[in-house]
Amino acid sequence: MRCFPRPLRFWTAMLVLGCGSVLHAVPVAAGLAPSRTTSATAIAATRDADLIVVQRTLEHRLVAQKLRDYGVSPDDVRQRLARASDEELHTLASAARGLPSGGDGLGTVVALLVIVILVIVILKLMNKEIVVR
Fold first, then answer.
1. pLDDT value at position 40?
2. Structurally, how many domains does the chain consist of?
3. Do the beta carbons of residue 75 and residue 64 sit within 8 Å?
4. Residue 120 counted as domain residue
5. Within 13 Å of residue 71, how many CA atoms lie on the same side as its CB?
6. What is the mean pLDDT of the segment spanning 39-64?
7. Within a domain: residue 54?
8. 113 contact partners, CB below 8 Å, separation of at least 6
9. Torsion angle, CA of 121/123/127/132, rounded to 10 degrees?
10. With a threshold of 0.70, does the pTM exceed it?
């Protein structure tokens, strides 16, 4: 009741042993690639990093609109950021990192509606009655 003839089994076993031996004997070197700074990402100090975070936050559409609503021009913002101390910039950057990066919550409402509709469809498919009182 042997499916494979003896010579085929022998050469298959030799092939598996040979491949395993070769793959096991080959040296492998792994490591982290060195990081290189480019002109776009060269950050010399924490002040520069904080300044980038604050500028990106201020470029957001909703933040820019709120500043315009309060009567603050973009030039005034740039001048104030240039005069800000390291501590003030770090405080602003820390606050900006803590802000949610979403919109007005419309996605959450849509997701909840989809879940409710999905539950209703599943209950209807199971012939369950839905009663809202």
1. 57
2. 1
3. no
4. no
5. 0
6. 75
7. yes
8. none
9. -100
10. no
Residue type at position 109: V
Domain annotation covers residue 133? no
Closest by Cα among 41, 59, 40, 54 to 90: 54
Average pLDDT over residues 19-42: 70
Whether residue 127 lies inside any domain: the answer is no
Q: Domain range for residue 89?
A: 46-104
| C-alpha dist (Å) from residue 31 to 1, 24, 25, 28, 34 | 51, 19, 19, 10, 9
Residue 39 confidence (pLDDT) above 70: no
